[in-house]
Amino acid sequence: MRKLGPVVTAAAWGLVAAGGLAACFALLAGQYRSEARREREVAAAERREKDARLAEISRELMAAGRSLQERDERRVRDLVAQEARELVIATLRCAGTAGHADTRAELVRIATEYPESSYPWAVLGRFDLAAGRPGLARDSLARAVAIYPGDSASRVLLYVAARDDGETAQAQAVASWFMDSATFADVLSGESLVFPEKAAFGRGLALLAPLPWDPPETGERAAVAAAAFRAAMTAESDAAASRYPCGVPWPPLLPANPWPRFFLGRLALGEGNPAGAAALFEEAAGGLPEEALVHYWRARAAFALGDDLAALVASSIALDRFPLHLGALEIRARVLMRLGRTSDAHRDLALALDLAPGHADLLLARGEVRTRLGRMDEAEADFLATLEKEPRSAPAFLALGRIHAARGEIELASRELERAAELDSSLAVARLERAALLLSLGRKDEALKELDLVLAAAPDDTEALAARGRILLDLGRASEAAADYERALRLGAWGWRIDEGMGDALAASGRPTAAVLYWRRAAEASPEAERIREKIRQAAKEE
Q1: pTM for this predicted structure
Q2: Distance of CA 435 to the CA centre of its chain
Q3: Which of 90, 95, 455, 541 is most buried (CB neighbours < 10 A)?
Q4: What is the pLDDT of residue 307?
Q5: CA-wise closest residue to 368 among 378, 358, 354
Q6: CB 532 within 8 A of CB 523
Q7: Domains of the chain by range and CATH?
Q8: Alpha-carbon separation of residue 228 from 61, 203, 234, 240, 368 (angstroms)
Q9: How far is CA 464 from CA 403, 432, 456, 498, in A?
Q10: Burial of 483 (0-12, 13-18, 19+ CB in 10 A)
Q11: What residues contact residue 341 under an 8 Å CB cut-off, 6+ apart?
Q12: 423 with 392: CB under 8 angstroms?
């Protein structure tokens, strides 16, 4: 047993040592596993951080890519819009030579090829409106504002086209848009902001919508509409001086909106106030220098005032914007006729009649121009075409009478002039010219009746008084002739023929001394002075 003791002891110590080693190994293994777990956690955290960085970089790259793509798309859109604009402008420049049909077809093609650009549709609508085709203009302008809702000018022109086309409902819808869009939520203050100038403008449009352009807008509703437009102008001035709640300057939504002035001008012209209308159109044109419609109405107001230079300038500006503007062509042609530029007037009327082949007023005007140019057969055809469109056109009968008179067809001319006078009692010139024709035929009594009719309607017509005085003198009614000549002179008539006639009447009445005074004055101005001096010498001999 004693021999086994050391063995047992050694074995026990071995077991103890083995247990210790096992414990050490277990401890080391635990530490290793803990370190490995920590390393895995660190690695996982690093991977997550790396993935997050990669994701962030990826998002930044994607955002940058989208930004570049949007910028490129905007650039492409801008380039496309610019290209469409340049094509439209080039097309309009050639409109005068290309003609209406070809120009419109090209504008439609451009608008179709550039569907995202509102500019071609807006110009096409204005082109149709200028050519007197409001139905087509409505469709194009509606497309323009659908593509770009902020195009207020095209929206106003859509209103004008709808009114011209008799589409009151569409005009009311445009007016409602202005009133509805006058209020919106301010993103800075969270409050609802109201733009009173825009609301008042919309109210004015709504009131005006059911009223006709021709005859002109008058009456109570027109007066209320005018008040609304004036309120829009006043509110606009007030808005320019107001502030946002945060202190930022608050300009009006439609800064210096010229459209209320335009519609006020239309109302003023309808009320017979061309001077006030001209001033309002002038202000409107300052804010809308590219709108042909505004310049056309400037020309109309100036024409009504008799200001030929202003009418010529305004109509030429309108035609510079749209070379085939029907109304501007007519106004400019009439001004050119007044100024004696007959060939230029004929050119404008030819363009206008290409746009409106059966327009009676244009046919009449072209006939007058052709008469001045000596193209009588063509002028007669124009006047006859006018009568086909308007059988009761007194100016057309008057013009035909003059053509027949120039050809020596006195009886036919007399009938045409008589018809003109019957259709328009205020057309005194027709009866005066008929009286002259009858006198040339020796039918003095009939001529005298014509002049009596003229003077019954216009007692102060000095030309009729002088003509009647001459006929009365020829009929031996010297005292009545002297009374007519004396009245004509009191009314401001002048000229050597009247002075000679007055002298003849006085001499026939037995007053040669007084007659000599008038003959001397007539001789000073007359190309037939020697003949009149012979009367003076004869009177001196008789005394």
Answers
A1: 0.73
A2: 44
A3: 95
A4: 94
A5: 378
A6: yes
A7: 76-165 (1.25.40.10)
A8: 55, 6, 10, 18, 43
A9: 22, 7, 10, 12
A10: middle
A11: none
A12: yes
Predicted confidence (pLDDT) per residue in 140-169, tens digit: 999 999 998 888 889 999 999 999 898 999
With the C-alpha atoms ordered 380, 386, 391, 392, is the resulting torsion angle positive or negative?
Answer: negative
| Nearest in space to 484 (alpha carbons), one of 511, 517, 451 | 451
Q: Which long-range contacts (CB under 8 A, 24 or more apart) does 55-64 make?
A: none
Residue 213: count of CB within 10 angstroms of its CB: 12
Q: How far apart are CA 278 and CA 440, in angstroms?
A: 46
> pLDDT, tens digit, for every residue of 374-396?
999 999 999 999 999 999 999 99
- Specify which residues 194 forms β-bridges with: 183
Is the pLDDT reported for residue 238 higher than 70? no
H/E element holding 276?
helix 274-287
Q: Tell me the pLDDT tens digit for each residue of 90-141.
A: 888 887 778 888 989 999 999 898 888 889 999 999 999 999 899 999 999 9
Give yes or no for a cis peptide into 215 (omega within 30° of 0): yes
